[in-house]
Design goal:
Largest sheet of chain A: 8 strands, antiparallel
Radius of gyration of chain B: 16 Å
Strand content of chain B: 25-35%
Largest interface: A-B, 16 and 12 residues
Distance between the termini of chain A: 60 Å
Structural class of chain B: mainly beta
Structural class of chain A: alpha+beta
Helix content of chain B: under 10%
Shape of chain A: globular
Number of helices of chain A: 15
Strand order of the largest sheet of chain B: 4-11-9-6
Largest sheet of chain B: 4 strands, antiparallel
Distance between the termini of chain B: 29 Å
Strand content of chain A: 25-35%
Helix content of chain A: 25-40%
Number of strands of chain A: 23
Oligomer: heterodimer
Strand order of the largest sheet of chain A: 14-13-10-11-12-15-22-20
Chain lengths: 451, 181
């Protein structure tokens, strides 16, 4: 392996995760930070840190020219975009390629194909991957006809949205006209493209996703599935692996479908193929592909024993995948809780500030991915994620009891956090019974507030 | 007394990698004083050289474009050259002090001290500038961004070298404002 130097174009816990993976490979690192992030754990761990711009992320973490210029000028050979920020921008991948820097992720073309949710949907349809009924409509009349055919309620989705952004729920036909025009103009202003499409709305669904990975030598494997049904406003709060609610038959269909999409794209790097699982109908439907490392990747690492970020780096450097599909086994169960500096008692208001106490539990079967340390000033400029607590057990029940114990022992003072909510969720009978669907948490929070 | 300015430049460059804040060398009538600009306040990687003897005030700038900014021997404000007009502050040449305004990089990029390769630099130590004067260019992905002085006065320090990567907020120049001269 030639000597590589990796530019890390991200912050927070994922920057630390990537820096650590590089350090274990003996790869030098340069971290690009905003002026607000000079004193972070990542800045301490990186071999070199450069200030990309001011605190505002549009002028620092989201500035493609600044990021690529910094990577080139510091002699980096590769760039890891993490998740969020620029991670799914084809423009970044393209500019890296033009400057001889390896983009640690899929190709610009793959990012483009997957960024267009309508194109991704059409690809899934062409491959026979299960899909919620729906499609594109050019005029309102077409949309109305399609909605009647699908049956209400329907979702209007922005082609360039994703992750819950740019969606409108339409319960009845008289609402369609208004929702259609609003969704289209919102999509135009938010994503620069007003294309929208229709899909049947699945009310009672589990969110299930498959981890895939592909190298540049044509090898592609999946690493089983994760369930991420505990969500609030399409933001995942708790994730686990595997999904304990799937039949063997549906699990096989899920994995095959994910691989079929990855194969059709000649997919390179880490990717996640997301599905909804209609609990009543016991039916899967394709949602979208996330072409990057996911926040919740550690639960897959826990049950497969594969270091996903390490594999992602090695693949980017041109190596072959170190394992084949037959080598992938899923054993045990893992649950991840996202700890955020948000006050659940004040409508999840962000709660930045000085972290006075940060004592993660030191106990068996626990992993904590975080950039927090005592004395750290949690900045108000970025997302509220403080860290991730991952519990591993022999089976789901074991993992649940471990995560409950770990949450009870986790001491945080300074910012208000969602720890009490995480305790309430993991202690809830519905969570224990594994009947949670994507709308469960909102209902549970309402109940907690009003009851 | 003779000073080889190229030698002096190498000497300063060598010092740059050490952890000093103030260096004084005296031999005969030669006195070389090197200070790291605003060592306590301003994070400045480049030292400022001062040769505070009128004898050392050679008129020509030894700078060749593209080379690291050699310490300018010429204390530019005319008044401070005259022994009969001693200014209140001790050093004759402008040394970056806390009163000086530090011009920082508005964005990350490659800094160019001259308008074009091979041309004379925009400013040197001792140059008088207006608020609207151009001091350097910061290039990011082939986009040229001109950095203006923002303050009228005299350049008292240049903290960067031509062609180096500058980070957002990094000190580029120090300017002794008109009012402070």
């Amino acid at each position: 392996m030639t000597a590589h130097r990796v530019f890390v174009a991200n912050r927070g816990e994922i920057a630390v995760r990537i820096l650590d993976a590089c350090a274990r490979l003996g790869v030098e690192t340069v971290l690009g930070v905003s002026a607000a992030d000079v004193e972070t754990l990542g800045a301490r761990r990186a071999d070199r840190t450069v200030v990309l711009g001011p605190a505002r992320s549009t002028d620092s973490y989201l500035s493609i020219p600044a990021v690529v210029h910094a990577a080139v000028a510091t002699g980096c050979t590769a760039l890891h975009p993490g998740y969020g920020f620029l991670s799914e921008q084809p423009e970044l991948a393209r500019l890296c390629a033009e400057n001889g820097i390896i983009f640690i992720g899929p190709t610009a073309e793959q990012l483009e194909a997957l960024g267009d949710k309508l194109r991704a949907r059409e690809l899934a349809a062409s491959l026979g991957v299960p899909l919620a009924p729906g499609g594109e409509a050019d005029t309102l009349a077409e949309a109305q006809a399609l909605a009647e055919q699908i049956g209400y309620p329907v979702l209007i989705k922005a082609a360039h949205g994703g992750g819950g952004r740019g969606m409108k729920l339409v319960e009845a036909s008289e609402e369609l006209e208004h929702a259609w025009s609003v969704a289209s103009s919102e999509a135009e202003s938010a994503f620069g493209d007003g294309t929208v499409f229709l899909e049947r709305y699945i009310r009672d669904a589990k969110h299930i996703e498959v981890q895939v990975i592909g190298d540049t030598h044509g090898h592609r494997v999946h690493l089983g599935e994760r369930e991420c049904s505990v969500q609030r406003r399409y933001q995942k709060v708790i994730e686990e692996a595997p999904c304990a609610a799937l039949s063997a038959e549906n699990r096989r269909l899920l994995h095959e479908s994910a691989l079929r999409i990855a194969d059709a794209l000649d997919y390179i790097s880490l990717g996640t193929v997301e599905f909804l699982y209609d609990v009543q109908r016991e039916r899967l439907s394709f949602l979208e592909v996330n072409p990057r490392v996911q926040v919740e990747h550690p639960v897959t690492e826990a049950v497969t024993g594969v270091d996903l970020v390490r594999e992602q780096l090695l693949i980017a450097f041109g190596e072959q995948l170190s394992f084949a599909q037959a080598d992938v086994t899923v054993s045990g169960h893992a649950i991840e809780c996202r700890i955020t500096a948000q006050d659940p008692d004040a409508d999840f208001q962000p709660s930045p500030g000085r972290v006075i106490r940060w004592r993660p539990p030191a106990t068996g079967g626990i992993r904590v991915d975080s950039h927090i340390y005592e004395g750290y000033l949690f900045p108000p400029y970025y997302d509220a994620l403080m860290g991730k607590l991952i519990a591993f057990g022999n089976d789901r029940d074991d993992a649940v009891s471990r995560v409950q114990q770990a949450l009870a022992r986790f001491e945080i003072a300074g910012p208000r956090t969602n720890l009490p909510l995480l305790q309430a969720i993991t202690g809830h009978p519905d969570f224990a019974a594994n009947t949670v669907t994507t709308h469960w948490l909102e209902g549970m929070i309402k109940e907690a507030v009003h009851g | 007394m003779d000073i080889d300015f190229e030698e002096l430049a190498i000497f300063v460059e060598t010092l740059e990698n050490t952890d000093f804040t103030h260096f004084l060398y005296e031999k005969g009538d030669l006195r070389i004083e090197v200070r790291r600009a605003g060592a306590t306040e301003i994070p400045s990687p480049t030292p400022t050289a001062v040769v505070p003897r009128p004898a050392a005030a050679s008129p020509a700038s030894p700078d060749s474009p593209g080379s690291p900014p050699s310490p300018s021997p010429s204390p530019s404000p005319e008044s401070s050259l005259s022994p009969s007009d001693p200014p209140a502050s001790a050093p004759l040449a402008p040394v970056a002090t806390e009163a000086d305004v530090v011009v920082t990089a508005p964005l990350l990029g490659t800094v160019y001290l001259a308008p074009k390769p091979g041309e004379a630099p925009f400013v040197e130590i001792g140059s008088t500038v207006l608020a609207e004067s151009s001091l350097c260019i910061v290039e990011v992905m082939k986009l040229m961004n001109t950095v203006h002085a923002g303050t009228g006065g005299v350049i008292s320090a240049i903290h960067v070298r031509d062609g180096e990567l500058v980070e957002h907020g990094q000190a580029l120049f120090s300017i002794r404002p008109d009012a402070a001269v």
